[in-house]
């Protein structure tokens, strides 16, 4: 079965959970596999309509995954209805991919995990690698048979952190990782270079947080994740993190930090990593929360 397969190009990289990734060749071999659903989730929400992997469905990080009014994620019934509309069953293997080194793909995967959907993987290299290899793309909408996905409660405790959790993390002197750009970390900018500088009243970072820009975890040429030894050199030798540490990752709105959460949790096997999705848009606007520059 597809869920038991592992891509040969990934198996020898030393990951704690190499089964959490598949390569483009594996995806190409499983385009007709009814037990697999490909989900494309991009920063540029227009890309899917311009062309996508045949059979893939679109999950819009803003329109599909966010609550329409609150700064929160969709509720349990809404998530179940989204899954039904996309033809995803509770036991479906969902393989995520997208643009920009899969940063929104990992975000979508993280949200699926909040609702307890465990059977999830990332297509290593994302949309760019698929296109670079000249593999087929289509603008045709897939034929989707509605599923009977059950309503499953969202569990925010295990992998999601809130402001109060970060304050407790600071008091306990436990590690934080700021995955934004060095300019954001220093307070010089409020968003990545070349993006609108908006979203927070103050610049800087949460005290004690280590700065490891999220994209350091991938090969800049291929968009594929670096091997485990390279990742450990970054997070353990440079930052001093250990596998038994309780780590909280954050960025500006939680998408880049979901990428680092995936790296630490799945590729390096850290069992206690949470994503602070409120991130700098909350922390940088909150009254009396400490910052450093």
Molecular structure report:
The protein has 293 residues and is α/β, with parallel strands linked by helices. The chain has 2 domains: 2-132, Rhodanese-like domain (Oxidized Rhodanese, domain 1), CATH 3.40.250; 160-283, Oxidized Rhodanese, domain 1, CATH 3.40.250. Helices cover 30% and strands 11% of the residues. The protein contains 11 helices and 10 strands. It has helices at residues 8-11, 24-29, 47-50, 76-86, 103-114, 126-132, 163-171, 182-186, 228-238, 255-267, 279-283, and strands spanning 21-22, 36-40, 57-58, 93-97, 120-123, 160-161, 176-178, 210-211, 247-250, 273-276. The strands form 2 sheets. A 5-stranded parallel beta sheet has the order 1-5-4-2-3. A 5-stranded parallel beta sheet has the order 6-10-9-7-8. The mean pLDDT is 95.
Mean pLDDT: 95
The H-level CATH homologous superfamily of the largest domain, spelled out, is Rhodanese-like domain
Largest sheet: 5 strands, parallel
- Number of separate structural domains: 2
CATH class of the largest domain, anyone? Answer: Alpha Beta
Series of H and E elements: HEHEHEHEHEHEHEHEHEHEH
Please count the helical segments.
11
CATH topology of the largest domain: Oxidized Rhodanese, domain 1
How would the global form be characterised?
globular
Q: What share of the residues lie within helices?
A: 25-40%
Structural class: alpha/beta
The strand count comes to 10
Strand order of the biggest β-sheet: 1-5-4-2-3
Task: Report the sheet-strand fraction.
Answer: 5-15%
Computed CA radius of gyration, to the nearest angstrom: 18 Å
Could you give the distance between the termini? Answer: 51 Å
Instruction: Provide the low-confidence segments as ranges.
Output: none
Would you identify the CATH architecture of the largest domain?
3-Layer(aba) Sandwich
């Amino acid at each position: 079965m597809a869920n038991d397969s592992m891509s040969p190009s990934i198996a020898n990289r030393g990951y704690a959970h190499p089964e959490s990734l598949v390569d483009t060749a594996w995806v190409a071999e499983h385009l007709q596999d009814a037990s697999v659903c490909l989900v494309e989730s991009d920063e540029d929400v227009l890309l899917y309509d311009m062309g996508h992997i045949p059979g893939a469905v679109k999950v819009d990080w803003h329109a599909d995954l966010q609550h329409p009014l609150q700064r929160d994620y969709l509720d349990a019934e809404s998530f179940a209805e989204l899954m039904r509309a996309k033809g995803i069953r509770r036991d479906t293997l969902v393989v995520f991919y997208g643009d920009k080194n899969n940063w929104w793909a990992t975000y979508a995967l993280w949200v699926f995990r909040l609702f307890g959907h465990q059977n999830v993987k990332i297509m290593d290299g994302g949309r760019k690698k698929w296109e670079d290899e000249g593999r087929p793309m289509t603008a045709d909408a897939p034929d989707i048979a509605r599923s009977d996905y059950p309503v499953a409660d969202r569990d925010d405790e295990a992998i999601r952190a809130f402001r109060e959790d970060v304050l407790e993390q600071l008091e306990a002197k436990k590690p934080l990782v700021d995955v934004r750009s060095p300019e954001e970390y220093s307070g010089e900018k409020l968003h990545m270079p070349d993006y609108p500088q908006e979203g927070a009243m103050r610049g800087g970072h949460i005290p004690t947080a280590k700065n490891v820009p999220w994209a350091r975890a991938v090969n800049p040429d291929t968009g594929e994740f670096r091997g485990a030894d390279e990742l450990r050199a970054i997070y353990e030798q440079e930052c001093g993190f250990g596998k038994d540490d309780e780590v909280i990752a954050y960025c500006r709105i939680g998408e880049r930090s979901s990428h680092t959460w995936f790296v630490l949790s799945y590729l390096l096997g850290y069992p206690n990593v949470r994503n602070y999705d409120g991130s700098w848009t909350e922390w940088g606007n909150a009254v009396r929360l400490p910052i450093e520059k």
